[in-house]
Amino acid sequence: MSKNFKALPIQLSDKLVAEIKEGNSLFQKPVKENGMPAFVKPVNPITGKGYSAMNALILGMQRHDDPRWMSADAARYAGNWVKKDEKGTMIEFPKTSDIQAIRTAEGKVIKDDAGVTQTKTVEFDKPQRGQAFLFNGSQLNDLQPLEEFLAKQNEGQTLSSIERAAKLIEDSKAVIIHGGQEAYYDKQRDAIFLPEVEQFENETKYYQAAIHQLAHWSGHEDRLNRPMEGKFASLDYAREELRAAIAGILIGGELNIGHNFGQQKAYMSNFAKILKDEPFEIAKASRDAQKIANLLLGVSQKREQKQGAEMPGFKKGDEIAYMDTTYKVLETYKTKSIKVEDGEGARKVLKPDYGLYKSLLEAKTNPREPEMVLEEEQGQAEEQGQQQKIGR
């Protein structure tokens, strides 16, 4: 690999900083000139799976209206071909194995009588960074018409985007107090404050604002327990806003309601500074945003498909890949609590109202491509004092 090659998070940060300065980032322009959402949730049309947060952000920033993404090889196997002169978009993923040529002790490749190189599958002790170039559906020939694909995707969906957003908020059980002119989350009271629906330009913008505040709400110590410190307009404050903004993009894409980071002007300079000075922060923020999306979507997503049906649960022996490890279910209890063991051998009992429990349930029932874990993990210093209003 070239010495000049930049790690993918650095490439993403560089592009985001440039877009922020130009005023056309996803945070600043949630709708394209054609009226379509700026971010369309990317999906692999063959597996039906979505992509992890950072990869979804990378793919979504290409601004395609078609949500379908796959590699050239996958497209070819499906009978499709990349159009001439089209360029792929690079993503990263944790690679747990590799197919390698079988060689002699002298290093020569072993071939069979037909001249075909013999191969073996090598399992890695630790996941390694894998990379792939993906192509959007608009870059491929002979693909199923987009309208037909979207119609099939929406089969069985009885709720509108607005209804799904309302249900997500209801299922969260968050305390929401209406009135006043500001939208924010109060940590001390563990409550969300929102203006009345009528004060928003339309109903969609109300739910977009509510989802953004729910993203902050998820960071409470009883849920995802995320650091939310720093005074308004500080860099620490902006870190939390970055996580909530990305989560709003992911959730808005999932619900087809779009996103709208209303107070973007107050944070853009700090976003740009953080991404320029600490480019790997985008990977950390994306992972936290994925946790937020998993938590908020995990409760309502399956209920809306089968009204009145019992939520899927866990069984002993389940192995669930989530974030940077795999959790194994050791025991299940009548209370629906579970005992799990992570990849490092740590064991804990999770109750149904725990954030990790809900995230694991979401990961089991709606698996996404796993997120690449970076070696560059710098600790964050804790500042004195707390800011109670978040997300103004």
TrEMBL record:
Record field: compositional bias (Low complexity): 381-392
Pfam families: ArdcN (PF08401), MPTase-PolyVal (PF18818)
UniProt xrefs under InterPro entries: ArdC_N, MPTase-PolyVal
Segments traversing the membrane: none
Region feature Disordered, mapped onto this chain: 363-392
Coiled-coil portions: none
Residues annotated as domain N-terminal: 11-104
One MF term in the entry's GO annotations: single-stranded DNA binding
Domain Polyvalent protein metallopeptidase span(s) in chain numbering: 163-287
Name of the featured protein: DUF1738 domain-containing protein
Organism expressing this protein natively: Mucilaginibacter rubeus
